[in-house]
Amino acid sequence: MDRISGLSDELLVKILLFVPTKVAVSTSILSKRWEYLWMWLPKLDYEDKAKIEHRSYSSELRTGKMNSRRSITTPRNQRLLLFLDRNLPLHRAPVIESFRLELYGSYLTPENVKMWVVIALSHCLRELDILYESYPPSKPIVLPSNLFTCKSLSVLKLDGDIILDVPRMVSLPSLKTLQLQSVTYSKDETLQRLLYNCPVLEDLMLHLRDYGDTMQKVTVVVPSLLSLLLCIPYGHDIQGFVIDTPNLKYFKLVDDNDKSHYCLIEHMPNLIEAHLDVSLTHIKSLIGSITSVKRLTICSRVIYFTFIFDEGFVFNRLEHLKVCICNDHSSNQLFRLLKSSSILQELNLFSMEDHEPQGMDDWNEPSTVPECLLSSLQTLSWSTYTGEPQERDIVVYILKHALHLKTARIKSYESANGFVSFSEMDRISGLSDELLVKILLFVPTKVAVSTSILSKRWEYLWMWLPRLEYGHKDCSEPESKRLQCFLDRNLPLHRAPVIESFHLELDNSVFKPENIKMCVVNAVYHSVRELEIVYESYSAKPNILPSNLYTCISLVILKLDGEILLDVPRMVSLPSLKTMKLQKVRYFNEEILQQLLSSCPVLEDLVVDLDEEDTTRKLTVVVPSLQSLSLVIPWSNDIYGFVMDTPALKYFKLVDDNQKSHYCLIEHMPNLIEAHLDIAFPDIKSLIGSITSVKRLSICSWVIYFTFIVLFM
């Protein structure tokens, strides 16, 4: 059965859009119905298949192996010419959405192309894309004047041997994208006149011709422009350029012309991303115009680039920086940029395509550390690291001072002979102990400890680690015994003055409460800032933490999970504690939690996940400073009720699966932003009344008369 015959012409035309225009045209031989169906196509793409011959001919012509008078006109060229001349005037689509021509060779005359464009324009053309290259060089194409008054045109792309001769009357009210590659401009004012009459232009690409173009001054003044790419090749005889694009968000400038020329660019306050690859000497205006950028990729071959920053330029929004290090003065550029970028988060050192790394010059350590290293830098990438002393010093400096660094990726430079070998030199021996400890932080504690067998120097280096993580969920009994012996022997000898975090995860009864108690005592002695204990044991006696934990001035984060008995002494003071998570722990009595919370004056984040067998009947959370609270009450917990008074709370999560009747007294939360409620208990009037200021609410209530409560609120 011929199912396709049952489809409408409109649908068949849409199907033809999924195949190349040449294939769509070939369907005309199928039947009488298909003969002219392709003529309704709104998108036409004609490509000269002689382009391979053309490129081969061009190569032979440049090397002198062929007579320059020879033409590459073929019967195939002539067929395309005749086909367009005969069929394009008969095209039936009322609107041509896009018309693309890719033409090579000298068989065409400018009049041919000019006529085809005129016909396309008569169909309310929206996108025009012409690529034309002629060898040997013939008369270039001059586009028809009515192109520059086309109201429907929104995309214009011109590439190759085309002369841009803009008439006095220009109006392109719909043009949003303009790409001009290697075209020739009839006058210096041609481009400026064209851009001035594109009131909604957003995307502009200008790739100047290497040789043969006489335009010496480039002026881009477009208030609506959002994206600009300007490429000035080495051979273009340019005097300078002016750019005024106040709304620009993306800017790419490739200026390979090392002849002296001016550069006047107005500030771009909305700039998000910039890509600069420049040889020009006068770049003060350029750097000043991009100080609002967020993402910057830069390569400057200007020797006195660093002196420009003495003018006081500051990149106060720059978060991502990529620096090409193909010049011997790259190190000075790098640190000038770092000093000017106070909130930088990511630094990438690399070489742009076709840029060969030359090795850095002698580098002097700056007198002051760049602010971004101390406060914000999180990621360092270096893809062309050669291991030269200057580069090694820079890596050491960054790793030493980047206090918030999370990720560092350093790859050797791949030269023509393969990767550079570092085996003949023990480069790591030249690093300081302080830096080696920072490197050890990137590996698990167990791996860091294993480095103690490397040499005498490494034997105790791991003992300076400020972050310690021992054990895991599936730790076997023999592993646990070895770990217990290791901790008993080594933890009292730990040398770090401050332990930033101490994580202990144990899953069997090998560890006795006394062992864990001693570990915590040692951690507190080293001014621990974050303590996390996960303890699952089948023994009857739960772990009781030492009393000095509850008077630890340095403790900021406390996370307890499992068989731990919370027995808070009378003297409690945790002045720095901001985060506390209590999951499945047990409470010595009902007042313990309240007593603990009342001694945490700056607590902001609290998680209380009650154990199913816990005997706590009354839960009280009164914390004025609290901003986030998660409370989980299991179905089997024998609870009487809970009281909450947290006026500064912003995030609230309550999962109450207990269907037994219990009270719920919650004070209003005027600053609440988000709440998540999953509740089964019947008395929810107080709960609903407390969250009426919420902005985002997720709710599941099992209560049958929930609607009545809301009605009477």
UniProtKB/TrEMBL annotation:
Xref: CDD domains: F-box_AtFBL13-like
Superkingdom, taxonomy of origin: Eukaryota
Any Pfam family matching the protein: F-box
Domain FBD residue range list: 371-440
Limits of the F-box domain: 7-46, 431-470
InterPro entries: F-box-like_dom_sf, F-box_AtFBL13-like, F-box_dom, FBD, FBL13/AtMIF1-like, LRR_dom_sf, LRR_FXL15/At3g58940/PEG3-like
Protein name as catalogued: FBD domain-containing protein
